[in-house]
Amino acid sequence: MGTTNRIVAPRFWTGGALVALVSLTTLAQGNDPARILSELPGFDFSRLSAAAKKELVSVLTDEFDACGRPLTLYASLKKGDACKHTRRLVGYAAFQASEGSPATETLNALAKYNQSFTAKRAKLAVDERQCVGPKDAKVTLVEFSDFECPYCNAARPMIEEVIRARPQVRVCYALFPLAGHANSTMAGQAALFARDNGRFLTVSNALFDNQTSLSDALIRTLVKKAGLDEKAFDRAVADKKYLDELNASKEAGKAGGVDSTPTVFVNGRKVTLAFSVETLLLAIDDETDWIAGNSSWTGN
Fold it and tell me: 221: number of CA atoms within 13 Å, CB side?
């Protein structure tokens, strides 16, 4: 998968009423996108390059509003009462433009993301011992990861930041050992053994901390350092106690659409936007509003 470097674009991600966009006709007449965007309250697009501003305005005038109105983002924003979902997507589109993404690519990403809310959702069984947050949470985030995947390790502090920012959300960790990683299955067995003995996160974090030097011997050492019975772990491995569970977790992920790690689901909905703290929060907040609106963002 692509890079999971953290996105830092706070000014692009703020809300607020948006007005004074121009139409496609006006754009065609050669008006400056920089001037157009400078008239929009609630967002600061001044750091965008001229090319990025042009792509962003193209997105705003081409993409349709998803909050129950037959309007483009441009028309919806011009009315001054765009829903929170629409304003969040503007922030995402602005960041994508700043990264050099063409309007067509961003439009495809937004369409795919919006469609995920009405598409069939994955049914993911989670073990509460692999979760943090309230059991009765309205929103559950499930992350499928592999202990030797560098992108999963890069995602770890992002997930931790999401937990701090949205304590009302339940976050669950699912294992997806990749065939190409020699130590992933052994590491997965260690994590599940630790879970059964109340040390799931302790051992999981230790495995990630030592990701580049994992071996059977080191994994056993990490289990022992966590205060667990190393001989009991060896017996579990010899008996293949956790292999069926690991395979079941991986198959459940595949059935839900996991094709790389890390992959995140929010209430069974695969998050298709580029992985970052901001996009995870966007997906969580959109899901919260979707639930509150009875499967709709209308009026939020």
Answer: 7
Q: Give CA separation, 34 vs 40, 51, 61, 82, in Å.
A: 10, 10, 15, 21
CB atoms closer than 10 angstroms to residue 20:
13
Whether omega before 262 lies within 30 degrees of 0, making that bond cis, reads yes
Phi then psi dihedrals of residue 213, to 5 deg: -130, 20
Closest CA to 54 of 108, 102, 110, 8: 102
pLDDT for res 6: 34
CATH number of the domain at 231, please.
3.40.30.10
Residue 2 has pLDDT above 50, yes or no: no
Helix (H) or strand (E) holding 269: strand 269-270
Both 140 and 111 in a single domain?
no
Task: Name the pLDDT band for 64 (thresholds 50, 70, 90).
Answer: confident
**Nearest residue to 141 (alpha-carbon basis) of 176, 110, 166:** 166
- pTM, two decimal places: 0.87
Domain of residue 223: give its range.
128-256
**Total number of domains in the chain:** 2
C-alpha 76/C-alpha 61 separation (Å) is: 10
CB 183 within 8 A of CB 214: yes
Contact 279, 106 (CB under 8 A): no
User: Same domain for 94 and 201?
Assistant: no
| Span 12-31, average pLDDT | 41
Give me the torsion for CA of 101, 106, 107, 108, rounded to 10°. 110
What is the percent of the chain where pLDDT is above 70?
89
